[in-house]
Each structure stands twice: as C-alpha cells, then as structure tokens.
C-alpha cells in the first residue's frame, strides 16, 4: 500500500528559483521513497519528481555494460532542483545543448503529475525520449508542464547514454553496443513497475520522441520483448529504416580509431579492452572521436558506426531488413500497438545546416544564396543509393531527375533539401505507417504533417530561399523552453498566435495517449491512416487534411530501399 503525505517545505521553496513551490509529497515505490515538489500555474498545479534513478550508475565496471536494475535504495530520492543530470556528450554550442556540466551517473528520469497524487486517478502516461542524433541531448531540456496540465496526463522524461558510451560496439558479447537503447528499456521497466504509485496507469503508456527519439520509439516497437511496457507509440521526425544502422566497415573504423586514441588498442581480447576502457577518465572517451572524425567533408554524410544503434544480433537483428512484408512475424508486436507518425514539410533544412565550407567550395556555391543541382546529383543522391544498395549510378540518376526543376534556383535549392527530408524522414515514416495499417483491424494508425513555421527557428533564420517548417520546429508545441529560448519582442505576436495551435496539438496527442484515437471535442476531425487512402492531418492555421503524402517520392525511394533489402546481407554492413 502506497504511503503519501504532504507537508510544508519552506526551505525548499527558497531554494528553487522561478517556481512557486509550496508543498512536497513523498511516494513509496518498489525501489524506495521518492520526493516531489509542487509547482503552481494559472492552469493548475504540477508535482515534479526530478532525478529518480531507474538503473545503477553506469560507471566503473558498469561502463559499457547493459544497465543494471536500480534495486532498493535507502533514504529518499528526488531533487529539489528543476534539472536532472546530463549524460556525457560532445560540447555542442547551440541553444539548449550547451550544457555546462555532465555526469556519467546519469540514468535518471523525471516525472510530472497534474493536480494531485492519488492511486485512484489511473492517469494515462506519456514517456518522452529525446532526440539529438544519439550523440547529444538530455531529459532536462524538455519541460512538459503544458502537456501535463492541458492534457491531464503524467509525462515522464528519461535519460539514456549517448555517443560512444551508449553505442560503442566490438560485436563481441562483452562489448555489444546498444547500451543507450537498453537504458530506454530499463527506464520503461521501472515506469511500468512504479507509475501506479504516482497515480498512473501502467497499462496506458505511450512512448513518444523526436528525431533520434522518434527512431528510438519505432525501434522499441520492433523489439517483441517490450510487449506490455507500452501500448501506444508516436514517432516524430524519425523512424527506423534500412539506412538507420551503420555499415559494419564504419563500426570497425570507429573501433580502431577509438581504441588507438585511448591507448586500448594493444589488448589481447575483448575482456582486456573492456577493462582498459572502464578505467579511463570519462572525458577521454567523449573527446576521443569528434564530429569531423565521422563526417565525410566531401559529401556531408555521417559515417558514425559505434555512435548510434547497431545490428548486434540479439537486441537488434531482423529489423535491419526493414521494410518487409506487414505479414512478417517480426511486426506482430508493432502492429498490436496504436501508432502515430509524422514529419514537418521542411525536414530538409538538416541538409543546408550540415553543408560544410569544404562542400560549398567544392561545388562553388554559398548556402545562403543557393544549393545547386550538382549537390543533389553528385553527392546526396549517390550517397543515399550507395548506403542503401551499393554503387548503382542509374538509381542515383533517377533521383537526380526526379528532384530536378527548371523553375528557379530557389526552387531547385529547395528540391535538393526536399530529397534529404524525403529520404531521411518522410518516406521511411510513410513506409512504417503502411506496414502498420495494412489489413490491421486491431490497432489505430495516424499520420501528421506540420507546415506551420516557427516564429524564431532553432539555430536562427534560414536562408531566404528556404521554404517549410524545419526539423525540430514542432517541439515548441509540446514543451516549455522559456529557460532556453528568449522570445524576441518583434516575434511575440506570432508566438502568442502559436499557442492556439499548440493547445489543439496537445489535445490530439494526449487524446491518442488516453484512447488510441486523437479526436475529441472542439478540434477538427483527424482521419485515420488507411492503406487505400493514406489520409493525414496538416497542422497549420487553419488545420486541414489531405491524403497520399509524397506518394511518387515514396514509390521511387522505397523501390531503392527494397532493392537494398534484397541485396545487402548483414556481413556487408
């Protein structure tokens, strides 16, 4: 039986800045007592439980090992601070990612509960998995109070190990990789076993995430042993596809470079190598391989083996061959879940932000003015084809022809970006939605497209020629970033207008989490994604619906991916 009591906590209130903290609450979990703190808002109050450990610290002999269950602790866990620890990662001088401190002891989660703590509430639960390319990010970036209050759901944000600490692999049982994905699963296990103590329903859990977080969400749905840990899934701007995983040659190159730079390359076997790596200062690991080491300066591709999920033959194996037939047994668990996936129309902004000075010099252009067709035809299309199939010039030429326009240099620049957005985000999402929806009466499928541009885009204003809502511009609809981004006075009106759309989107998301159906009162109808019509909702002002998103691009690129599925074997990756 859970024991809950509330008491005055004046001292804590004086320590927490920017929040009107009045009370604290202590909740008894299977691991021990957890303390949370009350926050008061115009819409109501939220109890936040920050820095709750879900696994033992992954340090010392637990570094580069699967997460170990936290077990039981003494005393009371839960910090009066508003931010939990950040896992070690590269310094990334961008708003929200410029963390001043990191800590290898970082396997914590944060829980946000609306109103009050009561066993009888049985609230639906939403678990957020952050993005950042599996190399940067933190749970504490995302303040979900708007979703918690407006949607009346519990939101949990979780940490997981990143970069080499999370994904380094030697394809050996002692150093198999995918520790970051294992961390996510261990967090979900802890939530499943304990969320009822916070008033949550362990049988109504939705996992959702964006970019690498969206890819993680879709990957978790393809691991049958996760059955029971969640019932619904939302992948935002990212799903698993054939080209998600690193080629084996990249992983070997990363392994050799990493071990050389850490002086662990002369060991006799994996056991000695692991021992060497576990004794290193953590900064020796995070600084061993940097962005230039994994980036081909001539083609803007990231050959990042060992820095994101790999095919380990155990946790991740058959999913490499995605896309497969919906009838394949590997999709049984996935197709039992309610599934939502979607993207933004300007996902291709990820291309122009990654075009290095070397690339611009090679192709004789400035990204602020244009991106020429040659970047598509000689660089991005051949790289995509090579990663998916191998060196097949005629397939690269098909892509080049499809994304060529004679309208204007501005239109062509957007076409180059459009291919990147289609191949990386939109087409894989379309394929996964179709796999889920085909002849599937047991679960619901929904698709969305966001076209509403951000009043002040992350990373600054795009080039004048760029059109569309850029990657990650949707995050503002769900989370409070007021402590990260300052709203310029000249953008205040646009920002305030955004709030109406934000409230509708939150209603859709939280309805889906509660019922498996995003529809509800006072919001436009969102049609389900059916295999014959493929309807989706467009989030802009006003909200509209359409069908068959990017059907021709999907036909072209999926044919190439299918060719790669038939020809590539695991040993070639």
TrEMBL record:
UniProt KW keywords: Hydrolase, Signal
Domain of life: Eukaryota
GO molecular function: hydrolase activity
The keyword DNA repair belongs to this UniProt entry's keyword annotation: no
Signal peptide from the UniProt entry: 1-18
InterPro entries: AB_hydrolase_fold, CarbesteraseB, Carboxylesterase_B_AS, Carboxylesterase_B_CS, Type-B_Carboxylest/Lipase
EC number(s) reported in the record: 3.1.1.-
Domain Carboxylesterase type B: 26-554
Transmembrane segments: none
Mitochondrion among keywords: no
Top EC class of this enzyme: hydrolase
Family per record: Belongs to the type-B carboxylesterase/lipase family.
Name listed for the protein in its UniProt record: Carboxylic ester hydrolase
Organism: Magallana gigas (Pacific oyster)
Phylogenetic lineage: Eukaryota, Metazoa, Spiralia, Lophotrochozoa, Mollusca
């Amino acid at each position: 039986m859970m024991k809950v009591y509330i008491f005055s906590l004046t001292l804590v209130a004086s320590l927490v800045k920017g929040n009107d903290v009045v009370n604290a609450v202590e909740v008894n979990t299977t691991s021990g007592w957890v303390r949370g703190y009350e926050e008061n808002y115009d819409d109501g109050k939220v109890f936040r439980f920050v820095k709750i450990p879900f696994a033992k610290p992954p340090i010392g002999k637990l570094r580069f090992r699967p997460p170990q269950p936290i077990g039981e602790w003494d005393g009371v866990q839960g910090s009066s601070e508003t931010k939990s620890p950040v896992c070690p990662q590269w310094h990334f001088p961008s708003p929200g990612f410029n963390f001043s401190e990191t800590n290898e002891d970082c396997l914590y989660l944060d829980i946000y509960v609306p109103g009050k703590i009561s066993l009888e509430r049985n609230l639906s639960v939403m678990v957020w998995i952050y993005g950042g390319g599996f190399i940067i990010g933190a749970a504490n970036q995302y303040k979900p109070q708007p979703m918690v209050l407006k949607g009346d759901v519990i939101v949990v944000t979780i940490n997981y190990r990143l970069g080499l600490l999370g994904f380094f692999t030697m394809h050996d049982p002692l150093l198999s990789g995918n520790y970051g994905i294992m961390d996510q699963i261990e967090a979900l296990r802890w939530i499943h076993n304990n969320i009822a103590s916070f008033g949550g329903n362990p049988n109504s859990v939705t996992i959702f995430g964006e970019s690498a977080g969206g890819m993680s969400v879709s990957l978790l749905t393809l691991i049958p042993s996760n059955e029971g840990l969640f019932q619904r899934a939302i992948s935002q701007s990212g799903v698993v596809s054939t080209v998600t995983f690193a080629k084996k040659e990249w992983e070997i190159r990363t392994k050799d470079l990493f071990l050389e730079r850490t002086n662990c390359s002369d060991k006799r076997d994996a056991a000695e190598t692991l021992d060497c790596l576990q004794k290193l200062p953590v900064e020796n690991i995070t600084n061993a391989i940097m962005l230039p080491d994994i980036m081909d300066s001539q083609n803007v591709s990231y050959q990042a083996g060992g820095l994101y999920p790999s095919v380990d033959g155990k946790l991740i194996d058959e999913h490499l061959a995605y896309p497969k037939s919906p009838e394949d047994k590997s999709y049984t668990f996935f197709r039992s879940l309610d599934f939502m996936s979607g993207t933004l129309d300007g996902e291709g902004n990820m291309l122009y932000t990654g075009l290095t000075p070397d690339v611009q010099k090679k192709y004789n252009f400035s990204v602020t003015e244009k991106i020429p067709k040659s970047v598509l035809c000689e660089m991005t299309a051949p790289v995509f084809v090579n990663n998916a199939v191998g060196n097949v010039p005629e397939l690269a030429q098909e892509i080049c022809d499809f994304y060529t326009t004679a309208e204007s240099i501005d239109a062509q620049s957007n076409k180059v970006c459009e291919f990147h957005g289609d191949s990386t985000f939109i087409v894989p999402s379309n394929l996964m939605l179709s796999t889920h929806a085909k002849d599937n009466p047991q679960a619901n499928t929904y698709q969305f497209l966001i076209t509403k541009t951000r009043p002040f885009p992350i990373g600054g204003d795009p080039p004048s020629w760029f059109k569309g809502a850029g990657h990650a511009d949707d995050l503002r609809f769900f989370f409070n970033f007021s402590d990260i981004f300052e709203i310029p006075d000249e953008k205040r009106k646009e920002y305030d207008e955004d709030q109406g759309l934000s409230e509708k989107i939150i209603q859709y998301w939280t309805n889906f989490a509660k019922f498996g159906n995003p529809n509800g009162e006072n919001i436009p109808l969102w049609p389900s994604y059916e295999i014959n019509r493929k309807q989706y909702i467009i989030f802009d002002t006003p909200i509209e619906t359409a069908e068959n998103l990017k059907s021709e691009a999907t036909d072209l690129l999926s044919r190439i991916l299918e060719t790669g599925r038939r020809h590539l074997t695991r040993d070639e990756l």
